[in-house]
Amino acid sequence: MFQFNPYGVYGLAAVAASWALAVLLYRVGTSGSVARKLSLLLAIEGFTLVTSSPFDLLFVPAVLEASWYPVYFKGGFILHTLGDGAMLALYPPFLAAALRTNLTRPFGTTRIRIILAAISFVLFIAIQFSRPEISATLLYLMLSSVFAFALVASIHAWHIAAPGGARDRARTFVFAFGFRDLCWGFIYLTGVWMISQGRYFEEPPRPDLINLIYTSGTMVAVPLIAYGILRPQLFDIDLRIRWTIKQSTLAAVFVTFIYLISEGADRFLSTELGNMAGLLASALVVFFLAPLQRFAERVASVAMPNTENTPEYAAFRKLQVYEEAVSEALHEGGISDKERSLLNRLRDTLAISPTDAETLERELQMGAVAH
Fold first, then answer.
1. Is 46's pLDDT higher than 90?
2. Domain 6-230 belongs to what topology?
3. What residue spans in the chain does CATH classification 1.20.1070 cover?
4. What is the CB-side half-sphere exposure of residue 135 using CA atoms within 13 A?
5. Closest CA to 14 of 49, 61, 58, 53
6. pTM for this structure?
């Protein structure tokens, strides 16, 4: 019934990643928080992906000819359209909560949320019970517009954000959701074009390139979102990533160098000489280990600039982590007794002095009032 297809496996991996991060965010977030809103959005995103085509790509050709397949395909299309409608209704309000700018603020109002939900519902019903070409085109054009708006709004939020934790959050948002917005916006515009050509409602699978772009939007966004979430929680995560990049670069150079020499000698000379060449390559790599380490260090520095394993950097990152926690508490409506207890525990864990913590909190409160 099933066969191996790298695009299908890749799609299911993206679904798993999206849902795993959704569960994590739901567990760490509080009711009404941005984390909970993002959790719901990622759950819908995974649902939309899994009802698109990954299973179709994994089916053997005989399944596509089975008598039950048209019913399965129709059910998948209904569920996928439901996911599209949910994205249209939920993404703009999430932008309002996450970016908090004048561009996105209107979408946080109850009236706009109700209008978006009503439009999504009407389009979903219209696609199922009327000519889907017209209503699906309208839905996909609206989704493409939302993704384009999200990209512009995130860049704007990054541009106006104050230096520090807020700017770091905005930058992560731009790279994570911006890439996803570009990929998904392109896919829905492609859907509009396919409808105009009379090809969209043909049975899948869709072209592999389409699936690759669609899935990659989520596969790239999820780890970046996870990094953006964990960075305020773990003061040394940048150091860990830098160390991983350095060691991975060194290992990649080592393996590539040995493989090229040994395989080249094996192909053009003989197996015995190939083995000898491999040993010689290993000796050369060891001999030039120091220059290779410096090269790997430069690669890591480019990937993770301004990240050094020094006491000064560790102290700076600890203050950033504490600042992020205080900012989040202030944004959610003030620091409650429970949040105060958690902040004090975090302060002690990070070895931040009470004086420094009070000064930082006072500055954040003054900034919030001024804003």
1. yes
2. Rhopdopsin 7-helix transmembrane proteins (1.20.1070)
3. 6-230
4. 17
5. 49
6. 0.67
